[in-house]
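Weekly modeling sync, notes
Attendees: S.R. (lead), two postdocs, one rotation student

Agenda item 3: backlog of single-chain predictions. S.R. asked that every request posted to the team notebook include the full sequence so nobody has to chase files. The rotation student volunteered to paste the first one in as an example of the format we agreed on. Action items at the bottom.

Example entry:
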Amino acid sequence: MNRINRRQFLVTAVLSALGVACTPSPQQSAPVTNTATRVVALEWEYVEDLLALGVQPVGVADIPGYQQFVQIEPTLAETVVDVGTRQEPSLEAIAQLQPDLILGVELRHEPIYDTLSAIAPTLLFNPYPAAEESTQLERMQQTFLEIADAVNRRPQGEAVLNQMQETFNQAANQLQESNLATRQFLLGQFVPGVPQLRLFTNDAMAVQILSQIGLQNAWIGEFDRFGFNPVWVEALPSVEEANFLYIAETKNTHFKQLQKNPVWQNLQFVQENRLYPIGEDTWVFGGPLSAQVLIENVVSAF
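Predicted structure, as returned to the notebook:
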């Protein structure tokens, strides 16, 4: 079967499959029997993982969004094809790329697992484990090595994780020597269009990363699978003695309005100027390279 006919066959098969209901498979992975070289990534974390391993994906969901929020090197090649949104990727576009591996996330892609796996072996991951299973940081590293195995780059994967740990160790030493870890911290995120502030809990990978460098989170909050609690300003006086690390776009209107709020203005960390912006493009839901960027931004903020 030549390349053109094979492409037509795949597209036809996918479109036919769309006419039947897709039920999630209990085994959320298809066997990867050969080293994958043509990989489609439907979640940004796995795009980053591939790039960290030296593999350019052939297709990525929502390339503009990835380029806006995930600030790592290396960057995506111009030849990478956008295959639609992360929530609703284009199955036809994926099939046309003739991938030999598809990477997705359970919370978005479980309903279309059968159709994806009809196109190519498909691995779906869950970056948000239940509290008793593992931490988000542990899960991120496990997933990274699984992807490294799938593209036959285990040594490179282990080297990336070793470098990440070395970054953690260096930052811990730097903060200890400068006595910056004496106060607890809050990690907040102001999201465009959302009036509430996200405060990250100990369940969040970002907080788990910061604990690796000797910092202690002041916000206990309630368990949330994503690792953050949406709160109003009235929740902050109980933790006002902490240092406030935050992620916010400079033009975020809700953050600007908050700065005029009397409750905000009277907080200890505001009055004592213990506000530490760590970059509006800091990505806290990524892989090993984003983890290093987070650490570097936090150390630079102090």
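Discussion: group reviewed the output briefly. The CA atoms of residues 32 and 102 lie 10 Å apart.
Action items: rotation student to repeat for the remaining queue; S.R. to check formatting next week.
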